[in-house]
Description:
Layout: H1 2-26, H2 31-59
Helix pairs in contact: 1-2
Amino acid sequence: xxxxxxxxxxxxxxxxxxxxxxxxxxxxxxxxxxxxxxxxxxxxxxxxxxxxxxxxxxxxxxxxxxxx
Length: 68
């Protein structure tokens, strides 16, 4: 499960690492493009990510512990 969470955090940090220098050093109007990318991340990528993480959680092995 940790891999899926790190994937999302890594993708977000990569987007920030790309857009912040572009906005600061190239052109401030690129903030609109960053907003479009954030929109795509939230409304396009996250539903697929949630389905994958739920599927992985359902397929994970279950513990069968009996009381002693």
